[in-house]
Task: inverse folding
């Protein structure tokens, strides 16, 4: 663009002109001109002045990004015990303190602040006598360092924001391409995408704090950013031997806690983990896991009941401590709920098998088809092993016990998922109603939808749940994808009965509109609007309303000896039951979640290790 | 003189003696000193003694993230900090292959020219003071304050604006700001006549400055003289026009020159440049409201940003001469090496040492000030 404005050429100065003799008289004009003066009273600073800091303590999460960007090392994080400290929500009770002996008021701290709690004020005078603060070390609060409420000066704007708040997009299968098969939906990051996504991380460590097993997420994200996937795998294996699995199906508390997520989309920590595991070959991962592993046999034997994430994590730790570990699995394959509860399109069996293969390669022996209580007795285990871990998970589906729910076309979700996983044949109905709003309900609904599409070319699945859709227990992504795949979701529907015609054929599920789920004491007591009755036409009903543990394997004698807490086995903080030789871990203690199970496995293994060392001495 | 710079001198049996000129001396710019050997009041040898302000900027920059250096570079030249920020940004943008949005380029020019006027006003005040004229000193500093008010409004800081980032500028121009710039320019424009009467055509000054510290054209080229000092020798070279950056090619401005190459000519070139800068800013004020678009090309998370390996050289015309940044990256999160080519290091050391010889003691201060050197940049 050319500027149309042409300004006049400046006149040259004639400095050779010695001027008139009367020139000094020109100064007389200044007698009547206004002199240049500067007032003595303090002047209000400009609207975006970079003065002393302000910090909104309610918004600040203590992530320390300001401390990291500070080029003068003027910021230190101070712990304030009176403030909330909630790792799960990603809030630390640390707040930045500024050393004004070092600060240069560049406001980079403001521009990087993930929570936008920091700003600079218009206050710029700090002199002190005995009555006032006599320090340069200030903990900024919303009122300013002298509590004088000068307003905000420099604040972050969309232009000055230094963080990138948008997640790197990842390719995934379109709904119409995925709905008739069990192929994995997400493609995973390409190396370029992974590096870009990893670059967004500010290394605050909220993810580490919130993770049940305290994965070293900042470290492996940084390793991916450095292009070193092997180092990332090394960091991942410090705390999680189920990395392929957690890289795909983790409930990812880390991403809820992620401080980038306060104003934008959190770092895709789960997909980054998946990327690292997929980028390194299986054989190389084995080598990395075996680094510094010198198995000195301790001569101790440990039995683990259940080859799920909890049991195998404990096995992983214990075998690395030199113990002989044997795992007893009732079903045909190891993996527990991750094998039989999670459909192939979310967690391919091959990926899970890689995790298990690494654990068995360390010397863990897994006996499949070995059901304790049937093929072997608990008392035998107690006699032959130094410690026993009960990690049996939640294998039994809960039932609604509504009218006609004992009909042969009313199924439990876990049973069906297990059948699908094993490839067993069952009578697939043309139209199905699913009861439940959790991830298991989504899993079974979406699995059945795929099979219907394959066999009948048409999907007829209705998912009913007590909650409103925004309060479903299921992952929002699961709900979104289920809807994309053509599943009909009816929320706020309380199941009342299964309708049967005169021939004994299941023809529908009757529901009432839910008005409230919990009573004033926050106890589960659903209230219905009986007028608002709907019958969902279907040939089969699947119940996905939760699971429980089948503890019959313990036997009557042991069951009576053990302490129980509301139907669950009572354990101490280390996962040890009231019997000194028996520990319990995983879903059967904590409820269903893979990464909690992994964390539990580590905990129990540490407790056993400690106990065995005590015994040795 | 600091002990490490001190060397015992065997005084000849003549009237030669040694004098420490600075660092605490009203005739010296900032933390800088000269060790002069005198015969009567004629200087027979001068040696600069720099380093009082040594903060090791170049070394410090190697240990800071790419973006953190933005807070450091304006300190290299306090009276004229904007070219440092812009030039560093230009060099990094070149390395990282970042395109700067057009609006940001115009805002950068606005700052650069405001900073040039502020620096020249400061120079005008300081230079007058060395000749014993204290009124211009107050005027120059007071009028510069009006420009600092504008910087405060635009960037949040009066001196160290820390406003340019690789990729653009940090915030938008405030509401009504351009009008206030225009008003301030009107005021300064009106004051120029007073400055002339008081100082630039004042015979007390003109006669005092004429013939002091003369550089001829060959010397200017040999000694790497740049900027107004070069143009005072009649050599018309200006980076803004001869190696254009930002949107300077779209602007209409002249390059004032003088022929004499002495302290007077150097002063007058600066006086004329103020007028040119005012012309440029008026064009920016006219054009900027119609230039829409983003202010910054986003850069990756600065805590992890790695600039691609390579080297780049960027130069801009500052009020004191040519400022250039040579930046080397090895693909890391911090610069591998930054070298700053500043005008003051040439002017205050090699040029001054030569010009001082043969001049009278009382002219040294004027020579230094007319070269407009900035000690922190010598020491960088």
Result:
């Amino acid at each position: 663009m050319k500027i149309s404005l042409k300004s006049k050429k400046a006149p040259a100065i004639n400095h050779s002109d010695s001027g008139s003799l009367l020139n000094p008289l020109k100064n007389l004009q200044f007698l009547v001109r206004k002199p240049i003066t500067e007032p003595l009273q303090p002047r209000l600073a400009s609207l975006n002045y970079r003065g002393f800091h302000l910090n909104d303590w309610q918004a600040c999460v203590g992530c320390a990004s300001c401390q990291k960007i500070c080029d003068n090392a003027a910021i230190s994080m101070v712990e304030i015990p009176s403030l909330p400290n909630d790792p799960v929500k990603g809030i630390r009770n640390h707040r930045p303190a500024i050393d004004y002996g070092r600060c240069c008021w560049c406001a980079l701290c403001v521009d990087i602040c993930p929570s936008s709690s920091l700003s600079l004020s218009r206050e710029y005078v700090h002199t002190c006598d005995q009555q006032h603060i006599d320090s340069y070390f200030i903990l900024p609060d919303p009122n300013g360092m002298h509590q004088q409420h000068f307003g905000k000066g420099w604040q972050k704007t969309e232009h000055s924001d230094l963080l990138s708040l948008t997640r790197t997009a990842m390719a995934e299968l379109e709904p119409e391409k995925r709905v008739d098969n069990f192929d994995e939906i997400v493609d995973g990051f390409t190396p370029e995408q992974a590096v870009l996504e990893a670059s967004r991380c500010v290394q605050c460590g909220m993810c580490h704090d919130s993770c049940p097993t305290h994965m070293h997420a900042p470290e492996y994200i940084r390793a991916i950013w450095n292009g070193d996937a092997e180092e990332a795998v090394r960091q991942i294996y410090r705390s999680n031997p189920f990395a392929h699995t957690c890289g795909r199906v983790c409930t990812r508390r880390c991403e809820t806690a992620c401080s980038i997520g306060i104003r934008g989309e959190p770092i895709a920590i789960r997909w980054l983990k998946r990327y690292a595991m997929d980028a390194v070959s299986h054989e190389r991962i084995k080598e990395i896991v075996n680094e510094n592993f010198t198995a000195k046999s301790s001569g101790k034997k440990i039995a683990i009941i259940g080859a799920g994430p909890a049991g195998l994590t404990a096995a992983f730790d214990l075998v690395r401590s030199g113990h002989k570990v044997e795992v007893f699995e009732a079903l045909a394959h190891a993996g527990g709920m991750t094998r039989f509860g999670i459909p192939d399109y979310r967690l391919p069996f091959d990926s899970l098998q890689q995790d298990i293969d690494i654990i068995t390669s360390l010397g863990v022996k897994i006996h499949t088809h070995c059901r304790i209580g049937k093929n072997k007795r608990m008392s035998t285990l107690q006699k032959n092993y130094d410690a026993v871990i009960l990690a049996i998970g939640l294998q039994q589906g809960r039932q609604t016990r509504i009218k006609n729910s004992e009909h042969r076309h009313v199924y439990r979700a876990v049973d069906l998922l297990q059948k699908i996983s094993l490839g067993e044949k069952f009578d697939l109905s043309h139209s199905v109603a699913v009861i439940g709003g959790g991830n298991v309900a989504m899993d079974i609904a979406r699995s059945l939808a795929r099979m219907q599409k394959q066999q009948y070319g048409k999907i007829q699945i209705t998912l009913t749940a007590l909650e409103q859709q925004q309060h479903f227990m299921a992952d929002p992504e699961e709900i979104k994808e289920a809807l994309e795949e053509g599943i009909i979701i009816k929320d706020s529907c309380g199941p009342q009965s299964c309708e049967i015609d005169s021939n004994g054929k299941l023809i529908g599920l009757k529901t009432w509109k839910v008005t409230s789920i919990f009573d004033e004491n926050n106890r589960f007591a659903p209230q219905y609007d009986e007028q608002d009755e709907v019958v969902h036409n279907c040939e089969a009903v699947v119940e996905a309303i939760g699971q429980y543990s089948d503890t019959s394997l313990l036997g009557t004698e042991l069951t009576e000896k053990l302490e129980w807490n509301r139907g669950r086995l009572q354990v101490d903080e280390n996962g040890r039951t009231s019997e000194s030789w028996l520990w319990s871990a995983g879903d059967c203690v904590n409820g269903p979640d893979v990464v909690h199970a992994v964390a539990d496995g580590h905990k129990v293994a540490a407790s056993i290790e400690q106990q065995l060392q005590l015994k040795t001495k | 003189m600091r002990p490490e710079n001190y060397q015992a001198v065997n005084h000849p049996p003549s009237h030669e003696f040694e004098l420490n000129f600075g660092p605490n001396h009203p005739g010296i710019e900032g933390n800088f000193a000269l060790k002069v050997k005198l015969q009567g009041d004629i200087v027979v040898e001068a040696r600069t003694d720099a380093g009082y302000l040594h903060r090791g900027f170049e070394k410090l920059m190697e240990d800071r993230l790419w973006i953190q250096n933005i807070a450091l570079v304006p300190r290299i030249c306090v009276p004229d900090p904007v070219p440092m920020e812009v030039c560093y940004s230009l060099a990094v943008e070149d390395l990282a292959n970042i395109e700067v949005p057009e609006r940001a380029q115009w805002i950068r020019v606005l700052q650069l020219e405001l900073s040039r006027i502020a620096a020249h006003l400061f120079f005008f005040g300081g230079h007058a003071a060395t000749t014993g004229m204290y009124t211009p000193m107050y005027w120059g500093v007071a009028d510069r304050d009006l420009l600092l008010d504008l910087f405060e409004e635009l960037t949040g800081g009066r001196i160290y604006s820390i406003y340019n980032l690789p990729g653009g500028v940090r915030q938008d121009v405030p509401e009504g700001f351009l009008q206030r710039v225009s008003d301030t320019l009107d005021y300064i424009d009106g004051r120029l006549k007073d400055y002339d009467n008081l100082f630039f055509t004042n015979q007390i000054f003109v006669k005092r400055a004429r013939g002091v510290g003369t550089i001829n054209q060959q010397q200017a080229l040999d000694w790497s003289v740049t900027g107004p000092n070069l143009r005072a020798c009649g050599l018309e070279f200006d980076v803004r026009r001869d190696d254009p950056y930002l949107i300077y090619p779209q602007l209409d401005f002249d390059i004032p020159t003088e022929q004499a190459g002495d302290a007077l000519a150097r002063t007058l070139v600066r006086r004329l440049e103020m007028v040119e800068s005012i012309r440029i800013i008026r064009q920016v004020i006219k054009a900027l409201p119609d230039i829409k678009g983003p202010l910054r090309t986003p850069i990756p998370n600065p805590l992890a940003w790695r600039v691609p390996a390579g080297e780049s050289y960027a130069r801009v015309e500052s009020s004191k001469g040519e400022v250039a940044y040579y930046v080397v990256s090895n693909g890391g999160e911090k610069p591998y090496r930054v070298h700053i080519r500043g005008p003051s290091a040439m002017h205050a050391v090699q040029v001054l040492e030569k010009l001082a010889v043969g001049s009278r003691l009382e002219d040294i201060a004027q020579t230094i000030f007319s070269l407009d050197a900035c000690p922190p940049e010598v020491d960088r």
Chain A is about 30% helix and 15% strand. Residues 1-8 of chain A have pLDDT under 50 and may be disordered.
